Amino acid sequence: MDKRACGVLLADEALSPATARWSPRLSRAADEDPAATPAAGDWVLLAPGDQDGAAWVLTEVLPRRTAVERLGVSGTSHTQVLAANADVVAVVAGMVPDLDLGRVERMLALAWSSGARPVVVLTKADLHPDPGAAISLVAASAAGCDLLAVSAPLDEGLDPLRAWLAEGATIALVGASGVGKSTLLNALLGDDVMATRTLGNEGKGRHTTVTRELHLAPGGGAVLDTPGLRSVGLSADTGLDDVFADVIDLADRCRFNDCAHTVEPGCAVLEAVETGALPRRRLDSWRALQREAAFQARRADARLQAAWTSERKARTRAYRARPTHPQGW
Ligand SMILES: Nc1nc2c(ncn2[C@@H]2O[C@H](COP(=O)(O)OP(=O)(O)O)[C@@H](O)[C@H]2O)c(=O)[nH]1
Ligand SMILES: [Mg+2]
Ligand SMILES: [Zn+2]
Q1: So what's the pLDDT on residue 3?
Q2: Which residues have C-beta under 5 Å from ligand 2, the single-atom ion?
């Protein structure tokens, strides 16, 4: 399947699977802005197919209720939608000795800013000698959202996820490769996952071997499996304030409004690090992610500015090129 086509489920026909080719207009829009590319979970409009053999032409992506977006990989400030219209975004991480909290926080920022309900799912609980300790370790990062410990082989801890599915929710799984997303998907949906259908981009370009898939759960709801992400750049508009609400609360209590939390007297953030209430790692992680988001905000501003400038120039050109005596005047 080429880049300009994707799998769809037909709403009018009991969600039977079909293939849709993108309309030329959609292709152009996607070239200009990757966020306009149909993503797994999108609701789209189809028109009857053209003579090229495609049964359907995808003409429009409907507005997204929620979107998990990361910064595009191509070094631009464009964003890429990993999952659309999910009700729950599950940040999946394995209970392994080198569990990367910074990565969890980074993904949680995407989850919070998606507009969906964020959840942290710690997999491989059966491999951990003390799952409770792993949960405590992650608790601060997951403040304000559900934190689940699960084991796929033992079928433990999956009930909350199953309950959301039974309510008809779409759950998007995001996380690094190897954390257990596909295993979780299988545990939630049963062994007939291979028989379920996909909606998403398949074979997006030469370098992409991954698919983003939407799997319908037999009892209702759906699970969106996203590819294992090696890098997830934060776009300018992130949920960092949600992920680091505890640090921000502390910062509100610093003596100086413009406290940089480095050497200032009366700094509540540094005091919390001192007493151990706030792990130093978490402060560093907040700083690093904030710097990144601020940098992207500046880039996004610059891009907007450039777009405005070129639009203004085009308008000026059009104005100059206008007939001196417009007809009808
Ligand atoms: N023991 C154990 N192994 C798991 C669990 N979840 C996943 N795995 C294993 O972790 C490896 C990676 O899982 P996979 O689902 O492919 O990860 P993905 O890349 O995130 O989709 C596989 O060998 C799984 O069998 C779990 O809950 N317990
Ligand atoms: Mg997988
Ligand atoms: Zn301070």
Answers
A1: 66
A2: 181-182
